[in-house]
Backbone:
């Protein structure tokens, strides 16, 4: 019996510590978070009593994972914008688990946040949670990955079509508007592969001097990028540039090109992964198209503010990309 | 004195749960609302159902690490069938049978193969995960019929359906464990397997049955989770076995078998759910949440040691 009491007290202590620890770390991120101390019993009344002076809006942000630099940047961008607007941002990490994410969103709904920013782990699995938010009349924004259902006010994501165009323009410029190109496609049917390819081909098709001599899927995979490129190198004696729908395939293609001893082929990737950026610095990869997760996070919170003011926003907000070159 | 033990064992976890709930309510009044409690129990249902089955296995002194993978496998197959327009009830029955057979495989290997349950279920955990990834090609299965989703989102008289299903399953297993010869034999094997065998109990049969119950529990959870997520995820159920084991141990069941109750497991599952939900409500960053959950499990293990020392 005594041990049970000790155990329960230990749990209580741990809970208390965690609650304090949590608020400390939030304090670090959010200097303006006056009412953030939800570990005091009066905190929820605080939220209501401060309505008069400065109604603090609370945004719930359910993020797919914080175990990946891209999403940490996304969170940091959102936090930055929230601090500027003096909003409170509640971030819950789904740890790439769709089931946990649905629970997280339900918990945010119970907290009655003013708006939900959701970065889904999976487009289909998030629908239940979005519908629950709709029922609770909490507006929902999706970021980076979209949702298959439920009412979403706006989707904020990288403009993959523009990124594909950007890669094509860069190749065109490097080749002085003339050359034979190879396109390594992502997993067929994915929106990233479709949009990146569409942007790229739009520019290439407009220019009769540029021809795509080979176009094959390599499923966003480095090993497949390599083997597909090996086959293309066998078949095509003349190649001036390669555009891959992601960096993994670009790096795989690069391996194949270097192994075959072919010189002067420009390779352009997409995503600006650390490996790819290093390859760009070493001069092996010509360029990679970078998403801007910090900007994406900032825009998510800024559009949240616009929505909370009752203004209309477009259903899709593209986030600019940028080209990383040497 | 000795026969007073059970009352501590029974009430200890419940007192712990109530105390945590009271503290959370003081810290965050929104915790104790009907809608949040329904929300919380609905989230708990998936782990609770798996943990009910796990209780039977652990009572015999075994362990089942494969439940998360069986869940993913059954979820994928049921979703695959539904996406191919197979009748809802047929698909669910196939899913349950598949769960039972998966559990039976574990049971045969443990009982007839005389292998350590930890190793057997570690292996089948990997096998079922691999089969799931192969079947789904690593992608979620979507396009499920709307009426199937009701299993995860529907309500009966205002009570979410997953909660109703959990309650029914609990009652069923409670009767099996406490009011059948089979139930008594489960305890007997966990208490002293050799003695149980010598007294004429077919221990192999009982062991195979408990792993089957565990497999069926995973299958029921798989169906609820798939409905809730509107899709079968190839990575569904990762680490669910650990949450289930944690719930069983938190509920006061001895990891060495022979001692424990199903009610305790329910309380244990609720405790984990209350922690998950409560820490979210308190805005504790997820990294700290994991620390807290880990510490709570540690405490439970310490309690388990106390029991084996008694």
Residues:
């Amino acid at each position: 019996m005594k041990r049970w009491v000790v155990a329960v007290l230990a749990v209580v202590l741990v809970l208390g510590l965690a609650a304090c620890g949590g608020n400390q770390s939030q304090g670090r991120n959010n200097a303006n978070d006056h009412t953030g101390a939800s570990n005091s019993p009066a905190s929820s009344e605080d939220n209501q009593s401060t309505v008069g002076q400065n109604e603090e809006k609370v945004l719930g942000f359910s993020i797919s994972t914080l175990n990946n630099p891209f999403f940490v940047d996304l969170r940091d961008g959102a936090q930055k914008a929230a601090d500027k607007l003096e909003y409170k941002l509640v971030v819950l990490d789904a740890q790439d688990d769709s089931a946990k994410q649905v629970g997280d969103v339900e918990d945010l709904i119970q907290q009655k946040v003013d708006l939900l920013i959701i970065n889904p782990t999976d487009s289909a699995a998030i629908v239940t949670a979005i519908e629950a938010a709709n029922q609770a009349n909490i507006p929902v924004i999706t970021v980076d990955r979209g949702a298959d259902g439920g009412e979403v006010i706006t989707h904020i994501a990288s403009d993959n079509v523009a990124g594909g165009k950007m890669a094509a323009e860069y190749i065109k410029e490097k080749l002085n508007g003339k050359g034979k190109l190879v396109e390594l496609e992502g997993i067929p049917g994915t929106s990233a592969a479709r949009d990146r390819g569409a942007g790229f081909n739009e520019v290439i098709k407009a220019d009769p001097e540029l021809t795509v001599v080979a176009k094959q899927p390599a499923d966003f995979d480095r090993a497949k990028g390599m083997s597909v490129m090996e086959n293309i190198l066998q078949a095509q004696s003349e190649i001036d540039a390669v555009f891959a729908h992601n960096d993994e395939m670009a790096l795989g293609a690069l391996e194949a090109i270097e192994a075959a001893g072919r010189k002067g082929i420009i390779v352009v990737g997409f995503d600006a992964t650390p490996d790819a950026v290093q390859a760009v610095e070493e001069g092996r990869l010509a360029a990679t198209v970078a998403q801007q997760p910090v900007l994406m996070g900032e825009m998510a919170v800024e559009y949240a503010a616009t929505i909370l003011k009752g203004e209309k926003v477009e259903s899709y907000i593209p986030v600019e990309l940028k080209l990383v070159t040497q | 004195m000795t026969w007073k033990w059970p009352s501590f064992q029974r009430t200890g976890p419940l007192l712990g749960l109530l105390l945590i709930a009271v503290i959370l309510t003081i810290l965050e009044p929104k915790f104790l609302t009907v809608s949040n409690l329904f929300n919380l129990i609905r989230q708990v249902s998936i782990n609770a159902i798996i943990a009910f089955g796990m209780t039977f296995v652990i009572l015999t002194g075994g362990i089942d690490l494969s439940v998360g993978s069986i869940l993913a496998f059954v979820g994928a197959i049921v979703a695959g069938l539904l996406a191919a327009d197979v009748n809802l009830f047929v698909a669910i029955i196939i899913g349950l049978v598949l769960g039972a057979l998966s559990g039976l495989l574990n049971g045969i290997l443990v009982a007839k193969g005389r292998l350590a349950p930890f190793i057997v279920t570690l292996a089948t955990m990997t096998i079922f995960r691999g089969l799931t990834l192969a079947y789904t090609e690593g992608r979620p299965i979507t396009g499920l019929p709307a009426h199937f989703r009701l299993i995860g989102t529907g309500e009966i008289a205002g009570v979410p359906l997953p909660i109703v299903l959990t309650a029914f399953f609990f009652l069923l297993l409670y009767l099996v464990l406490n009011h059948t010869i089979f139930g008594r034999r489960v305890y007997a094997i966990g208490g002293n397997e050799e003695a149980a065998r010598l007294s004429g109990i077919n221990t192999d049969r009982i062991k195979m049955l408990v792993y089957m119950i565990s497999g069926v529990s995973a299958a029921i959870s798989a169906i609820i989770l798939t409905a809730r997520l509107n899709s079968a995820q190839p990575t569904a159920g990762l680490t669910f076995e650990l949450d289930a084991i944690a719930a069983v141990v938190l509920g006061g069941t001895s990891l060495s078998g022979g001692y424990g109750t199903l009610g305790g497991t329910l309380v244990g599952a609720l405790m984990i759910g209350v922690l998950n939900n409560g820490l979210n409500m308190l805005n504790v960053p997820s990294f700290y949440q994991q620390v807290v959950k880990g510490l709570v499990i540690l405490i439970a293990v310490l309690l388990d040691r106390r029991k084996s020392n008694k």
